[in-house]
Design goal:
Elements lengths: L17 H10 L2 H6 L6 H6 L22 H14 L14 H10 L9 E2 L4 E5 L5 H5 L6 E5 L9 E2 L4 H20 L8 H12 L11 H17 L11 H6 L10 H5 L10 H5 L4
Parallel strand pairs: 1-4, 2-3
Length: about 280
């Protein structure tokens, strides 16, 4: 639920050290990485070494941006690059082309919906205090139903009148408005440290001017989509040159391992994408 998502309220660390940031980022992101399909089987864990260095070029500028306008795409790229920073020799979200993944999802036939979505009421409203039985089973004139905060919230699924496209369009405007009010410049013109300050305020739900989505809800959306774009198959637009998989030591879409491979603790092999295995190219 966009306005009340508190599933990951922890502020983002100040990511000036990309190695430290990645360890923090990956440690807290296992469930979301698993949700993208990046689940390493036991055989692969045994046969593939831990994260290995990778190098890559800047994402191919010939790939078309279909949903975002130029300013929006530059802002999304900058946001993702502060959530998971990198360099050409130590790739992060910018080098992996995460913005292309997000753009491709939003430009798709489902308008960015990747999960089961409820776009009609009653909508969930999370209350920190305990709610009465009557209030949790009765809808009001605004078509909402109350529920207590807790681990059970996830079972209600994604609920919003806003489509993912709406969330990005509105959220990006709020990011720039908050950046202007805080530093007198749009987000993409701020220093890395000031951009981090914006993201930290969003994560803590302390950023002003955000309304549907809230600052924390939009940060969570950006963070989750950055994870997906970094670690999903390159066929979907992100994870350029499989740099995300190389970062975590994931072997990709390999069809099988021989018994000799699994018995060899020194075995390693470069990751394989769906495009490699099917002959398709992005």
């Amino acid at each position: 639920m966009t306005g009340t998502d508190k599933s990951d309220p922890r502020p983002s660390p100040r990511p000036h050290d990309s190695h430290v940031t990645r360890r923090f980022f990956l440690k807290g992101s296992g469930a979301t990485i698993a949700a993208t399909g990046v689940v390493v089987p036991v055989a692969a864990q045994q046969a593939t070494p831990a994260a290995t260095p990778a190098t890559t070029e800047r994402p191919d500028p010939a790939i078309a941006i279909e949903f975002f306008n130029p300013h929006e795409s530059a802002t999304v790229e900058a946001l993702a690059a502060r959530i998971l920073p990198g360099t050409p020799d130590d790739p992060g979200a910018r080098e992996a082309g995460v913005v292309f993944y997000i753009d491709q999802v939003l430009a798709g036939p489902n308008g960015g919906y990747a999960v089961k979505t409820y776009d009609q009421g009653p909508f969930l409203v999370v209350r920190e205090e305990e709610s009465s039985v009557e209030s949790t089973s009765r809808t009001d004139i605004y078509r909402v139903v109350e529920a207590p905060a807790g681990d059970e919230i996830s079972r209600y699924g994604y609920q919003s009148l806003l489509t993912p496209q709406d969330i990005y369009r509105r959220g990006l405007k709020s990011v720039d408005a908050f950046a202007q009010s805080s530093f007198g410049k749009p987000f993409i013109e701020l220093s890395d440290a000031d951009q981090d300050t914006i993201l930290e305020a969003m994560s803590a739900d302390e950023a002003t001017g955000f309304d549907a989505p809230s600052g924390s809800a939009f940060f969570t959306k950006l963070r989750n989509d950055t994870i997906e774009g970094m670690f999903s198959d390159p066929l979907y637009g992100g994870n350029r040159d499989m740099v995300g998989w190389k970062l975590i030591g994931y072997p990709g879409a390999r069809g099988f391992y021989t018994s000799e491979d699994m018995a060899n603790p020194q075995f390693s092999a470069p990751p394989v994408s769906l495009a490699d295995s099917t002959g398709h190219s992005h």
